[in-house]
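Quick one:
INPUT:
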């Protein structure tokens, strides 16, 4: 897939149209890429399923002369293959790095910004990310984070929060758990036109590459907890960072840290991770489920004012904000119970078969 990155600025029609066109082109073949990229038939045997490489170390013909693999933490055929799959699925992506969890991805990316840096983060960021920023990066690296409501803050407020040492604007959209929707092109435009030029990172866990393509909207880094939609089976804990072609130097820095920190996955990159193909199908089904859950909650809430209790990401809103794949006239697709009563109704409905800690269909 050719890694084209569209201009991240403005919400103008030209941008939206080219973004949509590129998204549509990319979605054509998404399922095929999910199954085949990184899973090419073995050249020696013709096996269509890649062999699992259990070896931790690799024979060298001479000192430092090898076939591209030396030690499994630094590089492993299964991880390399899986990283190619991820780069092909995240539209606009050229480089992908797989980590042992979404949290290990966060830790590695935040290590890359060095000591005494500053981050601007959406205020409703995933709790573990908030904890890492405020307890680990802050205490161990002297990294300060300014948490802002990036959904509602005006441009001036965001611009003023950016300091000379601001290395990163951290977006999660929709946020976990209250589904705040962040206008990614707006934030990209503010960041990239600012004299201090912070990078824009989007945690795309919630929508997955199937529904959202932040790199096509100008984001510099996309991260995922693969533990959620992308794997789809609730049997793998992993994470990833994906970058566009023009961030080859940043890719090198993250790959260095991936190896230095050792936040790599021992086994998940093997056959089990082919769940990512299921993730794509699961997304489509989840859209229908969100609508059904909302109906149940609507019936169950005493005063009928479901909008006051449930934050629902409406398809049309997602479409307007540049989430391709959503229809302007479409239905509600994601619902989250807010107060306990609403959460209880949703969880007790038979639409949610398991009460577990996970984003996804369950
Ligand atoms: C949005 C988001 N990002 C990151 C993470 C962390 O991922 P992991 O649990 O794979 O470490 C989570 C986990 O729930 C999440 O919801």
């Amino acid at each position: 897939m050719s890694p084209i990155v569209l201009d991240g600025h403005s919400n103008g029609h030209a941008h939206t149209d080219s973004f949509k066109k590129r998204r549509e082109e990319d979605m054509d073949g998404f399922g095929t890429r999910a199954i085949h990229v990184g899973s090419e038939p073995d050249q020696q045997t013709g096996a269509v399923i890649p062999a699992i490489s259990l070896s931790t170390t690799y024979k060298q013909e001479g000192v430092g002369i090898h076939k591209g693999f030396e030690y499994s933490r630094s590089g492993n055929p299964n991880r390399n293959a899986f990283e190619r799959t991820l780069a092909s699925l995240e539209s606009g992506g050229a480089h992908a790095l797989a980590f042992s969890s979404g949290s290990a991805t966060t830790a590695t990316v935040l290590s890359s910004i060095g000591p005494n840096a500053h981050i601007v983060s959406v205020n409703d960021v995933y709790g573990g990310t908030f904890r890492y920023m405020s307890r680990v990066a802050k205490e161990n690296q002297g990294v300060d984070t300014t948490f802002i409501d990036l959904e509602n803050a005006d441009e001036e407020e965001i611009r003023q929060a950016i300091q000379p040492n601001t290395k990163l604007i951290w977006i999660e959209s929709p946020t976990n758990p209250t589904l705040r929707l962040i206008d990614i092109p707006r934030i990209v435009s503010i960041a990239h036109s600012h004299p201090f030029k912070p990078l824009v990172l989007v945690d795309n866990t919630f929508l997955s590459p199937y529904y959202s393509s932040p790199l096509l909207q100008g984001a510099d880094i996309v991260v995922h907890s693969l533990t959620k939609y992308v794997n789809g089976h609730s049997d793998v804990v992993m994470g990833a960072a994906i970058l566009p072609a023009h961030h080859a130097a940043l890719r090198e820095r993250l790959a260095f840290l991936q190896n230095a920190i050792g936040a790599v996955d021992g086994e998940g990159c093997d056959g089990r991770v082919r769940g990512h193909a299921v993730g794509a199908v699961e997304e489509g089904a989840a859209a229908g489920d969100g609508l059904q859950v909302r109906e149940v909650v609507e019936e169950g809430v005493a005063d009928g004012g479901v909008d006051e209790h449930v934050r629902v990401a409406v398809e049309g809103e997602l479409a307007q904000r540049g989430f391709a794949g959503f229809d302007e006239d479409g239905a509600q697709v994601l619902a989250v119970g807010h107060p306990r009563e609403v959460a209880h109704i949703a969880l007790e409905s038979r639409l949610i078969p398991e009460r577990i800690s996970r984003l996804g269909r369950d």
